[in-house]
Amino acid sequence: MNLVLEEKVALVTGAGRGIGRQIALTLAECGADVILNYHGSKEAAKETEKAVKEFGRRAFLYPCDVSDSDAVKKMIEESTKEFGKIDILVNNAGITRDNLLMRMSEEEFDAVMDINLKGTFHCIRHIARQMIRQKSGRIISISSVSGVLGNAGQANYCASKAGIIGLTKSAAREFASRGITVNAVAPGFIDTEMTAVLSKEVQEDILNRIPMKQFGRVEDIAQMVAFLASDAARYITGQVISVDGGMAM
């Protein structure tokens, strides 16, 4: 299937590295111009920007803390001025602050909820008005297999990713009649910098829980996002699609 996103504009949050970077590159490869949100390493984001431009697409770097509602509103307004529109929103920005529930501080819980869940809420809320005017839009949020199954030591992260699932379904119902689809992708364990630092024993334990007996690749997630952003997925909304090697089935 040829996923064509020519003349589309995508905003990807947390686009500096890992899954977010690959999503941005895959959307660019399919023909989209990309707004690259980051809140951290500017150098990493600039590498993503360079790679997007190598596909012959426009790239627009925008630093923004998605937990700040006013900053998100400004990002969307200025990005819209730059490109004239935004067709695709990918809510990818996320953090972890792992700890056992009884040891987890309120600050650790709030930090993860503010970025992962509230940040997704801010982005959807502030882009909705524009997409409603356009009578079209694709909103794709990155949840997690942990939001479906739970995971010891990640109560904050799992709660935030489960919250994204509920938010996705509610938004999908509200926007369906306006030509806007809202879906979530729930990655399993993906081969990234985060999994690379795990001990061999931990990696083996995880692999034993995955029916396909392998970690996923960032490309697996990015290709699903590109599909959901395309016209091929025009009749899909309110869905949570697991890309996890069968872990959550």
What features would you describe in this structure?
The protein has a 7-stranded parallel sheet, sandwiched between helices. Helix 1 (18-29) packs parallel to helix 2. The model has no long low-confidence stretch (mean pLDDT 96). The chain is built from 9 helices and 7 strands; from the N terminus they run E-H-E-H-E-H-E-H-E-H-H-E-H-H-H-E. The chain starts with 8 loop residues before the first strand and ends in a 6-residue tail after the last strand. The chain has helices spanning 18-29, 42-53, 69-83, 106-134, 146-149, 155-175, 193-196, 200-208, 218-229; strands spanning 9-12, 33-38, 59-63, 88-91, 137-142, 180-187, 240-243.
Brief rundown of the structure:
The chain is α/β, with parallel strands linked by helices and 249 residues long.
Shape: globular
**Spatial order of strands in the largest sheet:** 3-2-1-4-5-6-7
Q: Approximately how much beta-strand content do the residues carry?
A: 5-15%
* Main structural class: alpha/beta
The assembly state of the depicted protein chains is single chain
- As a percent range, the share of helical residues equals 40-55%
Report how far the terminal alpha carbons are from each other: 26 Å
Instruction: Summarize model confidence as the mean pLDDT.
Output: 96
Say how many strands there are.
7
- Supply the number of helical segments: 9
Radius of gyration: 17 Å
Secondary structure topology:
Layout: E1 9-12, H1 18-29, E2 33-38, H2 42-53, E3 59-63, H3 69-83, E4 88-91, H4 106-134, E5 137-142, H5 146-149, H6 155-175, E6 180-187, H7 193-196, H8 200-208, H9 218-229, E7 240-243
Parallel strand pairs: 1-2, 1-4, 2-3, 4-5, 5-6, 6-7
